């Protein structure tokens, strides 16, 4: 397939991936606008380097209505070399899940490589809760805490989130603004 008029976006994303991790990057636009195609081109071009490992998850490909599906996608569907997937899904807490993600990223770093976590159509995770909907922890809110820790606090890993849901972007922006306002008051 030919690739037209996206050189600027591809170059920006390639350069971003080569910088020290210090922020969460959102790539958004209307459905079928080329977000995934651009990201896959970046992955293809940077994968020629031996110092970068991509953890790419296209949530559009999977049904993700439950925490069990989330776990299977993140721990059974990727690069087995870096995914530590020998555990019982039924007895995992959210902290266990985040520890596994963190361990996988640290393993990449110990191998002298730069990990890049990419989640395509991230908004599909917004209705998943651990420990039930009423008292449970929102997976998405907790994931963002992990993303901030990986990027802004520890500078271990780039996190790139793709979405076509502009209402989701607005919700994320409002939540982060709320937290910023709360911290400053």
UniProtKB/TrEMBL annotation:
Task: Provide the leader sequence positions.
Answer: none
Q: What name goes with this protein?
A: AAA+ ATPase domain-containing protein
A single GO molecular function, which one?
A: ATP binding
What Pfam families does the record point to? ATPase_2
Entry-linked SMART domains? AAA (SM00382)
Q: Which domain of life is it from?
A: Archaea
Native organism is Methanocaldococcus lauensis
Q: Which residues form a coiled coil?
A: none
Q: Where is the AAA+ ATPase domain?
A: 21-177
